[in-house]
């Protein structure tokens, strides 16, 4: 009798676990389908700035001085319109997913339209050899913001040069490898330690490097629910350069001027 009772309890537990798993899978599927059918983000603002010894542009140039320090979303949106045939302001993001940060699909596996996510190329050049990172997610650093906290957590930004790095704003100060590439987060304060986990790519002085940026709403993220419907958001990316040990590099001219000023004050 005791063995039969134990068997019944084990069977009941197995059935319960199966039903709970089924409910979880069904709930996730419904959430994805609902948001895919009903949610579109209305607008996007993006500001990209860099340090003094690092610059970029939408086109390659021969000289470092021909690159710029800041790009507005208007510049980027116009380039997307020229290359893709649609304007991001008129085509808000739609939830998608990807296994390689190149091909994007909807929940049913069909290919996502190009206007469902953003894709553009930035050309970087530095005045000295460096490793490029995003700054920390502090007040004046890299930030993804929205009036609803769940929206930044559902966004993804990937950077593809020789390798792919994926910024997940909801990951915090941690990182891991995935099939699509390295996935990393950033600390919320102004303090950050630059290391392999949050490295984007490396640059040789005076050599142009094209980097493909992609921005999408990750449909499989648990934060991607109906709560995001019609929400606005903004993205600010700030890039910095470090040496191989993670130490911030400074523009040589600025360092020279500071040293001269220090010497002058000392005299």
Rg calculated over all Cα atoms: 23 Å
How much of the sequence is in beta strands?
25-35%
Q: Write down how many β-strands occur, each being a DSSP E stretch of 2 or more residues.
A: 15
Strand order of the largest sheet: 2-6-14-9-10-12-11
**Largest beta sheet, briefly?**
7 strands, mixed
- H-E string: HEEEHEEEEEHEEEEEEEH
Q: Separation of termini? A: 97 Å
Enumerate the spans where pLDDT stays under 50 for 5 or more consecutive residues.
Answer: 13-30
- Helix content estimate: 25-40%
Q: Output mean pLDDT.
A: 84
Q: What form results from the Cα inertia axes?
A: globular
Counted by DSSP, the helix tally is: 4
SS-derived structural category: alpha+beta
Any overview of this molecule?
- This protein has 267 residues and is an alpha+beta fold.
- The chain is 26% helix and 28% strand.
- The chain is built from four helices and 15 strands.
- A seven-stranded mixed sheet has the order 2-6-14-9-10-12-11. Strands 1, 3, 7, 8, 13 and 15 form a six-stranded mixed sheet that branches. A two-stranded antiparallel sheet has the order 4-5.
- It is globular, with a radius of gyration of 23 Å.
């Amino acid at each position: 009798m005791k063995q039969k009772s134990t068997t019944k309890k084990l069977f009941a537990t197995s059935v319960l676990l199966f039903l709970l798993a089924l409910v979880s899978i069904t709930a996730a599927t419904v959430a994805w389908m609902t948001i895919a059918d009903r949610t579109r983000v209305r607008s996007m603002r993006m500001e990209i700035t860099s340090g003094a010894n690092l610059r970029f542009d939408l086109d390659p140039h021969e000289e470092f001085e021909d690159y710029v320090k800041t790009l507005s979303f208007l510049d980027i949106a116009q380039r997307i319109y020229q290359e893709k045939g649609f304007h991001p302001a008129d085509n808000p993001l739609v939830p998608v997913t990807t296994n390689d940060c190149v091909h994007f699909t909807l929940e049913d596996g069909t290919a996502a339209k190009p206007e469902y996510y953003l894709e553009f190329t930035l050309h970087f050049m530095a005045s000295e050899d460096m490793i490029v990172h995003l700054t920390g997610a502090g007040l004046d650093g890299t930030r993804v913001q929205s009036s609803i906290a769940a929206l930044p957590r559902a966004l993804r930004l990937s950077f593809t040069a020789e390798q792919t790095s994926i910024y997940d704003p909801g990951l915090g100060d941690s990182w891991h490898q995935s099939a699509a590439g390295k996935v990393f987060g950033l600390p919320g304060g102004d303090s950050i330690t630059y290391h392999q986990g949050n490295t984007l790519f490396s640059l040789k002085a005076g050599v142009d490097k094209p980097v493909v940026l992609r921005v999408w709403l990750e449909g499989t993220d648990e934060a991607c629910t109906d709560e995001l419907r019609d929400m606005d958001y903004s993205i600010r990316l700030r890039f910095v350069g470090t040496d191989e040990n993670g130490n911030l590099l400074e523009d040589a001219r600025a360092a020279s001027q500071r040293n001269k000023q220090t010497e002058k004050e000392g005299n």
